[in-house]
Amino acid sequence: MAKFVLADDPYYAKAELLADYLQKNLPDFHIFKITQHPHVWEEWLRDVCEKNKWSHKSSPIIWRELLDRGGKGLLLGGYNEFLEHAQLYYGVTSSMTTELMKAIAQENLEAHIQKELEKESLKDLVDPLQVWITRWDSQSPGFSRLAPGSGLAPGLEGSCSRTSLEGGRKKTLHNLAMNAQDLVSPVLRSISICTRVEEAFRQAHVVIILDDPRTKEVYTVEDCLRSRVPLCRLYGYLLEKNARDSVRVIVGGKTFVNLKTLLLTRYAPSIARNIVAVALGVEGQAKAALARKMKTSPSYIKDVIIWGNISGNCYVDLRKAKIYKYESAIWGPPRFSRPILSLVFDSEWINREFVTTLKELTATGKQFGGMLAAHSIATTLKYWYHGSPYGEIVSLGVLSEGQFGIPEGIVFSMPVKFENGTWVVLTDLKDTEISEQIMTRMASDLMQEKLVALGDLLHFQPYQPEPEGAALTITDDKEENQEYSDDFEGISLEQ
Prior knowledge:
- Helices cover 36% and strands 19% of the residues.
- It is α/β, with parallel strands linked by helices.
- A hairpin with a 5-residue loop joins β3 (61-66) and β4 (72-77).
- α9 (280-294) crosses α10.
- The protein is elongated.
- The N and C termini lie far apart (66 Å).
- GO terms for molecular function: malate dehydrogenase activity; oxidoreductase activity, acting on the CH-OH group of donors, NAD or NADP as acceptor.
- It holds the Pfam family Ldh_1_C.
- It comes from Cnephaeus nilssonii (Northern bat).
- Residues 286-449 form the Lactate/malate dehydrogenase C-terminal domain.
- This is Putative malate dehydrogenase 1B.
């Protein structure tokens, strides 16, 4: 089978008529037409000839592509060569007069111009997804791939524009922008850098907050907490002023993720429900640790729940966790699953090594570094737009309304599902009650963070729980002036 390509300025009526006749009457004859405006014809012809190493200077140009031989192009020439080919191989010729050819050519030109105008008008109607990322450089190199259509967020269709807000380090940001462009994402329309604060989040559909202050100075816990307020107040004001009413805000970073999310909801009250904290990084690390123990893939482990403070005092709940495709004496179809806790018989590992492993991974915010953090945010964004997998539990930091006995007015990681472009807290889950002591410990720290940050409490005093049953808590003793955000306060599990 061969495909014949006709490329010309608008004056290719004779060749087009002959090609249409052959395609209509021959089952294996196919044509492909390329029309160019006369103003760009010569430049286009030169580029085509250079690419294919052809020599052709007049209009039209016709070549043959042998589809069964890898599609390599074979130049036929102009109209006379194409007519000779048709007569020789197919016994077909053309009898179009010159006057008729010119009339049809003029119609072709007008149709071509109209088609181009329609394309331009359609482009104006396309509303690209405006994605703003603050402190984009703070998580290099993983975040150079964080964009709809980049491969980390499959299913987000349509054009998008990504903007990074940053007051300095322009050279670094320009390098990151170039790296993102090198991905050649088909839906990434443009990348720009914003250094004018008043323009931040203009018409944003999605805002990703990555800010973590960097300094070598030693802070007290209270200084660390209060230092988050001015920037969150500014971002809240800009979100209210410039972003779209339906903007979706995802908060990440290495420190005080819950607190930053809470402050943003306070200073951008009209979009408070659309401001969430990403918890999939901690969830992913827990699944990976379990997968290594069970010698399986982390993707086969579902429904691990992260409660509490994402970058602080959290509780990893395995009571609903399931594993799929696990090779054992009991086997079933792809949808068959088994409870994780019924398969991990080493309770010492669950209560000791598993906790220690997660603590080491999450120390100094490693749960939000590079590719893991980028993937966590991109997956959260994909779920938000297209829904989470049916029946699967997802962890997300959201503003508490009193669910599960969690105090109102704090951002708390809890089980949710995404559907219809929003998220819903899974309050109907059975057997997910959390002991009063564990809940008090997590909620107390988050409440104190809020009060200290807002100036309603002078000193932060971490809650010190007593051992309870099979639950285990690991805490770190910190010097008074050590930065509070360096490590998790603790990770708890309950068997």
